[in-house]
Design brief:
Layout: H1 11-19, H2 26-55, H3 66-82, H4 85-89, H5 98-121
């Protein structure tokens, strides 16, 4: 495991630095990638919910409202960009944590088993 610095830049600053041609700290970038992957997952889940709701002609309650989901997306991005990636992820999602890596290996094995069973059915 790498040794963690006490201070990590905010996600917004890390992205801005990279886009400006600077070379942000390696660990800042690793954590930023994990944060952006989590944000993408949340957006994918929200779009999936909206898609299913539309296909099933569900009533436009908050969880199926595109406007609500968009506002939530903006708020989540705003909060993430204002924090360091390590702080936003929290210790339960810290990629340098042994317990997180153990949980990830178990999750990947479960997904692999599901995909194998799905392939066998086809």
């Amino acid at each position: 495991m790498t040794e963690k610095r006490n201070v990590m830049d905010t996600l917004g600053n890390i992205i801005d630095s990279a886009q400006s041609g600077e070379k942000p700290d390696y660990d800042d970038l690793r954590y930023a990638v994990c944060t952006l992957a989590a944000l993408i997952m949340f957006d994918r889940m929200a779009l999936g919910d909206l898609s299913r709701a539309e296909k099933e002609n569900k009533k436009k309650i908050l969880s199926y409202s595109a406007v609500y989901r968009y506002e939530e997306h903006l708020n989540m991005i705003r909060r993430a960009f204002a924090k360091s990636p390590r702080d936003w992820l929290g210790e339960n999602n810290d990629p340098d944590s042994a317990s997180v890596q153990k949980r990830r290996k178990i999750s990947l094995k479960i997904v692999e088993n599901i995909l194998c069973k799905e392939n066998e059915r086809q």
